[in-house]
Amino acid sequence: MLKNCDNFRDMGGIRTRDGHVIKEGKIIRSGKLSELTDRETAFLGEYGVRDDVDFRTAAERKNEPDRIPDVVSYHFAPVFPENDRTRSGESKWESRRDYYVDANAAANDMIEAYNGIVLEDCAKKAYREFFEVLLANDRDGESVLFHCSAGKDRTGMGAVYFLTALGVDKADIRADYLASNRYLKAQQDKEHARAVDKGEIFAQNIFNLGSVSESYLDCALGTINNEYGGLDSYLTNELGLGAREREDLRRIYLR
Q: What confidence tens digit (pLDDT) does each residue in 177-225 have?
């Protein structure tokens, strides 16, 4: 839909277990918005985007600021701590010695990052703000866009929480999460081509950083189950989504 924005997709059309469908033009997920052309930026306003929730760190935002039209309200909701440069993709991967000798090094980093997405107070605060924006989006023809850098991890877990709150089947939630690999394939291929000169182990680690995996999602869900008694409990007690809030979300986003 946008050539200069990775992983851009309207979540409309996803079905809930009880047969309702998410409305088109109400909620969009994507990667960074810093490389949009003027025409693409105008398109966001024409499409109905009125709120932009940015899950990136302040450093990411400074280095690659969002390009959004004036009609869009910007919400800065960093998921990772500002001093955690590794998880936000700012580390110099070429200097990581273990990435040249251990094919599982990056995957282990991703597992650690997903645990942080679940456990850290800044992440919970970010997703609570995300839902506050979603609950205020009750006007017809207007939408919320939420994103991080690639739109796959911080954004991916935001989508997991949102779809769970609406009552979407677990298999469909997983499919939406894993779809990032399809949307990001061209970028993954480019990164692999650049990385393979440094060896296959390094290239595999770069691929693991730039993709999503069932093991990453299972780590997050397992931590939620072990630490909070399950996803429903996590949404209620950690993100403030009780029965009333979930009903409001269903009213706003489902048809």
A: 999 999 999 999 999 899 999 999 999 999 999 999 999 999 999 999 9
The C-alpha torsion from 117 through 86 and 32 to 62, rounded to 10°, is 110
Nearest in space to 202 (alpha carbons), one of 194, 214, 212: 194
Q: How does DSSP classify residue 93?
A: G
Measure Cα distances from 247 to 77, 251, 254 in Å: 24, 6, 10
Nearest to 144 by CA among 57, 240, 25, 31: 25
Asked if 217 contacts 160 with a C-beta cutoff of 8 angstroms, the reply is: yes
CA atoms of 160 and 248, how far apart (whole Å)? 18
- What count of residues does the chain have? 255
pLDDT for 126: 98
For residue 59, count CB atoms less than 10 angstroms from its CB and return exposed for 0-12, middle for 13-18, buried for 19 or more: middle
Sign of the Cα torsion 91, 96, 99, 105 reads negative
**Average pLDDT of span 143-162:** 98
Tens of pLDDT, residue by residue over 80-100, are 998 764 455 545 666 788 999
DSSP per residue, 181-248:
HHHTHHHHHHHHHHHGGG-HHHHHHHHHHTS--HHHHHHHHHHHHHHHSSHHHHHHHTT---HHHHHH
Chain centre distance of CA 78: 12
Asked whether 128 and 239 are in contact (CB, 8 A), the reply is yes
Query: How many Cβ atoms from other residues are within 10 Å of residue 110's Cβ?
Result: 20
Scan for tokens 């969002």, then name that residue: 66
Q: pTM for the whole thing?
A: 0.95
